[in-house]
Specification:
heterodimer, A: mainly alpha, two-stranded antiparallel sheet, 27 helices, B: two-stranded antiparallel sheet, transmembrane helix (chain A)
């Protein structure tokens, strides 16, 4: 595509060499390669690797899910990652700078990235606040979510807790103090406000001087999760029932491969897991030296990300397997107790091995009594598939499993430190994707120092984030998660590819890569950048868009007054929420053509 | 005549006792013991001696409750023993062996001495089950300061100290950098106020997000 004036907007190769040699730029730099790699790994590896990937893996055919995941990783993830690294390193600007350098009409792509980074930062740090709350509460024995509190009269347990479970009660009542609908705000929950403030404070102290401080923080936040995962793996494998969990996770069901939803979910997971199109990766890569081997970096980080997903899934499922086996054993023990109490049989006359035969024998002799007993059906598979995604996994299922382990507070502390580090290192990238564009757009006066800019940004985000710590906060968070962090990213990612390949020019890009890393990118990169990856992005986007538009939008709520309590109740969104949804998904997406249109009009009439 | 009467009473006594204690009696309770569940390999066998201990402990509990009225093991009647290790029991009054102690008194006696009864058998509230007497709930642990606030305080203290330290160090760095500003350092101060054709370079550079460093570089080598 014709692109006039590109040479004036972009540093030439000769100028880059000079910059490299003389270090005349004011741009911050990484202290060493390790910092850069750890920061990128930390940004890519986040909470999604721990609580989204295992669920997808298990629900889409276990081991068979690896096939679409790895194929799409290679065809979609790695090329996009390499593209972002290369363009950042070449143009040495943040996301807004890069896109306006490529073509001033593409400024909208940078603005879309910034908007998405901002919206995601707002709610992501609330999740970190929740993690901190659980972390603060882990320093007591017994853990507060291991037993139901006593009710006001001390006559029995709290009703809401007894009808659901102690972990559900602690999450929905003690942590969120959730209301039953999104239009009931419920007021600010002071303990969550404190946790939110501490989450933003920790983020501020790590980002106060940009990558100078972030680069030091990542030595801990990016490595600690791996240490904790290894500890949990060893602990998990020694627990009863862990192997059944792993078997459940990895048992392949090749029929799932013919289901398009599997491929779609795999593609979406690869895309979101790599934190592409946020602008943070472009920023981080721009602080590198010009001749850094970004091709190698992209491949290494992709491999680390995939490995971490699989590793985390294994660890999670050893613990899930343990919990499911415990629940199954308890269920069976309860039934056996009921039977021996009813028929006054000696203890241990019925145990796990002869339960089925004894039950059928008793049922044939006394069918009426057996049906009156209302024995529960105990199915291990049901327990294995229970609520194992998202916040439900971390704050309900996993916390319950921890209460059954010896030395529970220790495992709880370790687990929540791991989640905290995973979330914080992803936040570094998100905040980078907000701060650098704000500086490029000159929103702040030049006299303000880095500390002041990051301070003001964190403060404003913290204040806006108060939406998520009111009673209905969880519903708002789910809303933001579904709409702010999905469609706009897909659009931005697609535009990025098209922008670099067709507006910047793939030939020019190839030359740049030859200059930076010494050899022209091979046929694999050429084919994926030009055709394959944009096509995959387009297909995913269209499917996503079609499914979102066509179905009526529901949210699930915790409603103690509903008939189906404790099962979460599906409620339709009120009408005014649709406006919010449009703002969340529409504003960043429309910024892409909108900025171009605005500029065209401005140029014409000014 | 008296001998016949005594024989009749003696014959009737066990019958009377049998009538006093039966399953679903109003003033009695069913007890279930789950010894193997509680103790596993260390479980003891249920025997006559264990039953005797039970009756003795229960007599103790009732005696304690009724302010030391003299109860004896024979006042505790047991019936309907099963292999489950469950049975029914009733408590007779010491003065009149055909009268039963009211249910409520028995219940309160057991509640107040539950811990002692459990300990005698090395069992818990769940494994020594008096059907109909629910265990009283343990008092919830009350903290003066919730533990989470303490950890929160520690974390926030460290974070605030970190922020203050970093801000102070930045401030000191700036102060130190300002000091040698007295020396005229022209050649290093290249990017400040270079002008070409009367137009400040910076103003050209800022249009359309571009920054052409060509001008600044040239000035270094063409010192005027």
């Amino acid at each position: 595509m014709p692109n006039p004036g590109l040479d004036q907007r972009v540093l030439s190769h000769a100028q880059l060499e000079k910059l490299e040699v003389e270090e005349a730029g004011e741009r911050p730099k990484w202290d060493n390669k390790a910092q850069y790699m750890l920061t990128c790994v930390g940004f890519c590896v986040g909470l999604g690797n721990v609580w989204r990937f295992p669920y997808l893996c298990q629900s889409h055919g276990g081991g068979a899910f690896m096939i679409p995941f790895l194929i799409l990783l290679v065809l979609e993830g790695i090329p996009l990652l390499h593209l972002e690294f290369a363009i950042g390193q070449r143009l040495r600007r943040g996301s807004i700078g890069v896109w306006s350098s490529i073509n001033p009409y593409m400024l909208g792509v940078g603005i879309a990235s910034m908007c998405v980074s901002l919206l995601v930062s707002l709610y992501y740090n609330t999740i970190i606040a929740w993690v901190l709350w659980y972390f603060f509460n882990s320093f007591q024995e017994p853990l507060p979510w291991s037993q139901c509190p006593v009710n006001v009269n001390r006559t029995g347990l709290e009703w809401e807790c007894e009808s659901s479970s102690p972990v559900d009660y602690f999450w929905y009542r003690n942590t969120l103090n959730i209301t039953s609908a999104i239009d009931e705000p419920g007021g600010l929950q002071w303990w969550m406000v404190l946790c939110l403030i501490s989450a933003w404070a920790v983020l501020y102290v790590c980002c106060i001087r940009g990558i100078e401080t972030t680069g030091k923080a990542v030595y801990v936040t990016s490595t600690l999760p791996y240490v904790v995962l290894t500890i949990f793996l060893i602990r998990g494998l020694t627990l009863k029932g862990s192997i059944s969990g792993i078997k459940f996770l990895f048992t392949p069901d090749l029929d799932e491969l013919s289901n398009p939803a599997t491929w779609l979910d795999a593609g979406a997971q690869v895309f979101y897991s790599f934190s592409l199109a946020f602008g943070g990766l472009i920023s981080f890569s721009s602080y590198n030296s010009v001749h850094n081997n970004c091709e190698q970096d992209a491949v290494i980080i992709s491999i680390i990300n995939a490995f971490t997903s699989i590793f985390a899934a294994t660890v999670i499922y050893t613990i899930i397997g343990f919990r499911a086996t415990q629940r199954y054993d308890d269920c069976l023990a309860g039934n056996i107790l009921t039977l021996i109490n009813m028929f006054d049989l000696p203890e241990k006359s019925i145990d796990d091995s002869n339960y089925a035969s004894s039950l059928s024998h008793l049922n044939s002799t006394y069918p009426a009594i057996i049906s009156n007993l209302q024995l529960k059906t105990c199915n291990l598979n049901t327990f294995l598939t229970e609520g194992v995604e998202g916040t439900g996994l971390a704050f309900i299922v996993f916390t319950e499993a921890i209460t059954k382990m010896p030395l529970a507070p220790l495992w709880s502390v370790l687990f929540f430190i791991m989640l905290f580090c995973l979330g914080l290192s992803s936040m570094f990238g998100n905040i980078e994707g907000v701060l650098v564009p704000l500086q490029d757009l000159k929103v702040f006066p030049k006299s303000w120092s880095k500390e002041a800019i990051s301070g003001v940004t964190c403060l404003v985000c913290c204040c806006i984030g108060l939406i998520f710590v009111q009673g209905s906060g969880n519903y708002w968070l789910a809303l933001f998660d579904s709409f702010a962090g999905s469609i706009p990213l897909l659009i931005t990612g697609f535009c990025e590819m098209v922008g670099v390949v067709y507006v910047y020019g793939i030939d020019r890009f190839n030359e740049d890569l030859k200059f930076m890393i010494g050899h022209k990118p091979n046929i694999f990169w050429q084919s994926t950048w030009r055709v394959i990856s944009p096509l995959i992005m387009l297909v995913i986007f269209l499917f996503y868009f079609a499914t979102t538009i066509s179905k009526e939008l529901f949210y699930i709520s915790w409603d103690p007054e509903s008939v189906t309590f404790p099962t979460l109740k599906q409620k339709p969104y009120p009408v005014w929420i649709y406006i919010i949804i449009f703002l969340l998904a529409g504003v960043p997406s429309l910024a892409v053509p909108g900025a171009a249109l605005f500029r065209a009009i401005w140029k014409r009439y000014c | 005549m008296r001998c016949v009467w005594m024989v009749c009473v003696l014959c009737l006594a066990p019958a009377v006792a049998a009538i006093l204690c039966k399953p679903d009696v109003t003033d009695g309770y069913k007890v279930r013991l789950s010894i193997k569940t509680a103790l596993g390999d260390d479980a003891y066998e249920w025997s006559k001696s264990e039953l005797f201990l039970f009756r003795a402990v229960l007599a103790f509990a009732v005696q304690r409750k009724t302010n030391n009225v003299n109860y004896d093991v024979s006042n505790i009647l047991v019936c309907d023993e099963t292999e489950r290790v469950s049975f029914w029991f009733v408590v007779t009054t010491p003065d009149n062996t055909s009268e039963l102690l009211p249910k409520l008194v028995v219940e309160n006696a057991i509640r107040e001495n539950r811990h002692r009864i459990n300990s005698a058998f090395l069992l818990t509230d769940q494994t020594l089950d008096f059907v109909g007497i629910n265990p009283t709930l343990a008092a919830p642990i009350e903290y003066d300061t919730p533990p989470w606030l303490i950890v929160f305080g520690v974390v926030m203290g460290v974070v605030c100290a970190g922020i203050v330290a970093l801000l102070v160090s930045t401030f000191l760095q700036k102060k130190r950098a300002k000091k040698p500003s007295a020396d005229p350092v022209d050649d290093e101060d290249g990017s400040g106020s270079i002008a070409g054709n009367g137009i400040l370079c910076e103003s050209i550079g800022d249009k359309d997000g571009t920054y052409n460093q060509g001008f600044t570089d040239d000035d270094r080598f063409t010192k005027l």
